[in-house]
Amino acid sequence: MKTTMNPCRSRAARMLGLALLSAATAVHAQDSVRLLPQQDRITDEAIDADLRSYEATQGRIQALNDAGRPVRDYHLSKAQCWLDVSFHEYTRNDRSAFPQAALDESVKLIAAMERGASPLPTDTPLVNDARYLRQDLWQRLRVLQGTPGFACAQQAAACGEVELVHAGNEFNQQQWRHAKPYIQIAEDLVNDAEAMARQCGGPAVAPTPAAELPVVANVLFEFDRDGRGDIRADSLQGLDRALARVAEEGLVLERVELVGHADRLQGLGAEHNEALSARRARTVQALLVERGVAADRIDYHYRGDTEQVQKCDGVKPRAALRECLLPNRRVEVRFIVR
User: How far is CA 37 from the centre of its chain?
Assistant: First the structure.
């Protein structure tokens, strides 16, 4: 049984846990690193052996960096993030196959980089049958990879992908309550990656047209509600952060696109959900006008329950299902900038 996670624990804190291990000694390249079987992780000696495996793997990443592969490199970052989540779950006493599977992904990338393989893989497998969560975030990451500014966003994008898999694994084990903190980490990383790509420039990188990467926020509503008092406080703060980001990045706001959505609980295609999603979009439109956005620059649309980004199949009881479906009760806010 895993210990309870502190939701405030960030990916940076997990990296610190690895950094606290002593400096790794040089090791010969190998294509696999095996943790001890779960039933053997009961003595200090066994745990020390696994920690040495993590330590050695961290040393290989450091050696690749020392040899000239930058920390911001997509594949080096991804190897580090797979190692981070493996170590994090190992220290939480995760008895599933996830710590080993995540470690395997890290080692595969490390070994390929050590051999000088080209091209290196860019897929992000759903290890340990992790649930596919937040289709909207995966889609934003795919779009990001097709922009010139991705050169500046590789580290955050790679770790965002890994954290989405991490969240999907937590969903399978303990449903939405345990997946939610990792989803938030992933969403923050996606937002950071897009900001880095928009600001990317320099002699080797063509600046990315800002319109290719709008500033995005999702305003989330309570079940079957549409008023401003029914908005989740953290998502309202996210809207304000997005507005602040436009100013901080020196962007010019051309227009705002709002798309209202509802979850599936009233039945797919229900007229009720279509009207609900329209009211939600109008509520957010009014909030933006109050925050100084010109009304004639805001367009709104509504899709009812036709575009679910999180399915939550098999989630019970009813209260847990409603909470899991929260990302579907959204108004997508896209600040189109230049």
Answer: 30
In this structure, are 92 and 180 located in the same domain?
yes
Are the beta carbons of 221 and 292 closer than 8 angstroms?
A: no
Count Cβ atoms below 10 Å from residue 297 Cβ, excluding itself: 15
Token match 């649309």: residue? 301
The whole-angstrom separation of Cα 183 and Cα 330 is: 15
Which residues, including other chains, have CB under 8 Å from residue 235's CB and lie 6 or more apart? Answer: 217, 218, 219, 220, 330
State the Cα–Cα distance between residues 171 and 161, nearest whole angstrom: 15
Q: Residue 27 falls within a domain, yes or no?
A: no
pTM: 0.89
38 falls within a domain: no
Tell me the pLDDT tens digit for each residue of 163-192: 999 999 999 998 998 999 999 999 999 999
- Alpha-carbon gap, residue 175 to 321, rounded angstroms: 9
The span from the first CA to the last CA of the chain, in angstroms, equals 50
> Would you say the C-alpha torsion 278, 282, 288, 293 has a positive or negative sign?
positive
Parent domain of 160: 11-19+44-198
CATH of residue 286: 3.30.1330.60
**Exposure letters 232-251 (e unless 16+ CB within 10 A, then b):** beebbebbeebbebbeeeeb
